[in-house]
Amino acid sequence: MRGHGDSTTKNSWSGDWTAIKSLVPYFMEFKGRVFLALLFLLLAKLASVMIPFAMKHIVDALDSNQTQIVVVPILFLGLYGLLRLGTILFGEIRDTIFGRVTERAMHRIGLKLFQHLHKLDLDFHLSRRTGGMARDIERGTNGINFLMRFMLFNIIPTLLEISLITIILFTNYSAWYALIILIAVILYIAYSVILTEKRTDIVRQMNEMDNQTNTRAIDSLLNFETVKYFGNEDYEARQYDQNLTGWENARARNRLSMAALNSGQAFVIAASITAMMTLAAYDVSAGKMTLGDLVLVNAYMMQLFIPLNFLGFVYREIKKSLADIEHMFSLLGKEPKIKDEPDAGELVLNGGEIRFENVSFGYKEDRQILSDISFEIPAGKKVAVVGPSGAGKSTIARLLFRFYDVDEGRITINRQDIRSLTQQSLRSAIGVVPQDTVLFNNNIYYNIAYGRPEASKDDIEKATQLAHLEQFISKLPEGYDTLVGERGLKVSGGEKQRIAIARMLLKNPGIMVFDEATSSLDSSSEQAILEALSEVAESHTTLVIAHRLSTIVDADNIVVLDQGRVVEQGTHVELLEKQGIYSSLWELQQREARQPDELLSMANIS
Ligand SMILES: Nc1ncnc2c1ncn2[C@@H]1O[C@H](COP(=O)(O)OP(=O)(O)O)[C@@H](O)[C@H]1O
Ligand SMILES: [Mg+2]
After folding, report:
1. SS3 breakdown of the chain: % helix, strand, coil, rounded to 5?
2. Which tens digit of pLDDT belongs to each residue from 333-352?
3. What spacing in Å lies between the alpha carbon of 391 and ligand 2's midpoint?
């Protein structure tokens, strides 16, 4: 919020220009509509510029003493009405036609950004607040809407009108009129822009004070109990008073600067109108102009300054919109760290033999997580990785899925370096049950079906059975339709894990990765699921990351990891014989597992 706010006050014109340029292609989708909208914009402005002409003729007709002339003002009165109607009508048509263009651009950019965010690497997402990103998108697309509305419906029409009026005055009357108008407009715009820039800080301060006062009051009231416990009512009131004083002063400064802006603008308008009217009055009395001409000149001045009145506001908002748009496009400009090579090939699974060859990796340069890791999982076999928390086990799974690229060494599947493959083909061959499963805020059915959205109900029920979920679901009053809550917070950890297993089984990939996938389950449910899984795993290459060693005794190979290094490797029996880390871990866990039973039997004896 803060950093973003700062970027809006820094006025880099080149950034604004970049933002406008990046928008252009999105508006070219409906070339015809853009052209039509511009045409109606021109028509609306022509109509509005003609209005003072009609007025001039009405006044002149009424002013003359000829008798049969009554017809003329009626004609021009009719025209006057038509022109007024035309101004509004053409404007409406222009809005209707162009609305679609803006919305389509917002649609396209929003979608592109969404797809792009999914393309960016995990690291990017882990280091950003999702809520903030959603706000950036919303601000950016709203910025487009605002920019288009005011560019097309305020800035460009006004500029057009100024040019038209200047030309009319220049060709029909003396050049002085055109000159006065031009000078007035330039002075007016310059003054408004300069003062608005100056006011930006004051407006921001005012908003900040507003926020602060509010937050302060809410925080104080939320802590009602604490305030009472410490008898600090007066202290709280004093602080609030201080905030309110700041707020009051900020408002006063804002009002003052607003007054300066408004009166400066009024001064320019008054001075130029006086000059114009003096000139016109002189020309009328000299017989060079009619009374109608004087009315016309006056009407043009009034007509011109009405839209300019909003200039300060529009200018500020457009600057803000441009900054928001630029910010949004900078998100689009972010390159994902993991990219397909230009000549990336498709993965040929062929059983799915996996090799880690001397792999070293660190999330950041200054801290190595994995050092010189080598092991292999022969096609269709099951290999387990065990080790203390923080050893780098989950990191191995993330590297295999290519959320990150290795720093040294390589990972191959069926002898193909995974960096030479398309991410799509690699990832579709690997199923992962992550350590911390997050669910979509939808029902259980949706979350399981996510593994293969086109799966039939039968397939889903089969996966549910394998993951030992059917008993849980049958107990729910709403069954599969039960909502799991945001991030799946309304189901227990074990249930969440089983949903994650079911949807991975539904995907049915050649390679399966379980990252402590049953850690939240009690031992008996875990055993039941593991039995079911071991049948499935027969035909799959499987990587199991486990904390409880009893779950992986049947693995074809066990890799013991400690502080990012492979310290032991072998089958369960081999590792026990070695009497190393694995065997002491095994002893420890066996003892822990026995303890409850011992306690229970002791209780029975007494
Ligand atoms: N995205 C990340 N950025 C920086 N460090 C990380 C990141 N993810 C994990 N780590 C660190 O890497 C180490 C290994 O993590 P991990 O592979 O998750 O361990 P575990 O063996 O418990 O699964 C930990 O010390 C952890 O703090
Ligand atoms: Mg882990």
Report:
1. 70, 10, 20
2. 888 889 999 999 999 988 88
3. 8
Q: What is the tens place of the pLDDT at every residue in 141-199? A: 888 888 888 887 788 888 888 888 889 888 988 888 889 988 998 999 899 889 888 88
Q: Which atom of ligand 1 is nearest to the CA of 389?
A: 22
For the segment 528-554, the average pLDDT, to the nearest whole number, is 86
Tens of pLDDT, residue by residue over 461-502, are 999 998 888 888 999 999 999 988 877 778 888 889 999 999
Q: Whose CA is nearest to atom 18 of ligand 1?
A: 394
Ligand nearest the Cα atom of residue 516? 2
Q: Which ligand is closest in space to the CA of residue 515?
A: 2
Largest CA distance in the chain: 129
The residue ranges of DSSP E strands in 315-369, in sequence order, are 354-361
| Residue to mutate, 124, 128, 363, ligand 1, most ligand atoms under 8 Å from C-beta | 363
Distance between CA atoms of residues 590 and 594, nearest Å: 6
Side-chain-side CA neighbours of 85 within 13 Å: the count stands at 6
- Say what the pLDDT of residue 403 is: 93
| Residue 420 contacts residue 345 (beta carbons within 8 Å) | yes
395 CA: nearest ligand 1 atom = 17
Cα-to-centroid distance, 393 and ligand 2 (Å)? 5
The amino acid sitting at 232 is N
- Looking at all shown ligands, the one closest to residue 387's CA atom is 1
Neighbours of ion ligand 2 (CB under 5 A): 393-394, 435
pLDDT at 99 over 90: no
- Distance between CA 273 and CA 299 in Å, rounded? 10
* Secondary structure element (H or E) that encloses residue 544, with its range: strand 541-546
Higher-scoring residue by pLDDT: 561, 536: 561
Please give the domain boundaries of the chain with CATH numbers for all domains.
1-153+319-334 (1.20.1560.10), 346-429+511-606 (3.40.50.300), 436-508 (3.40.50.300)
Report the pocket of ligand 1 as residue ranges, CB < 6 Å.
126, 363, 369, 389-395
Task: Extract the runs of DSSP E, i.e. beta strands, from 256-400.
Answer: 354-361, 370-377, 382-386
At residue 126, the pLDDT reads 80
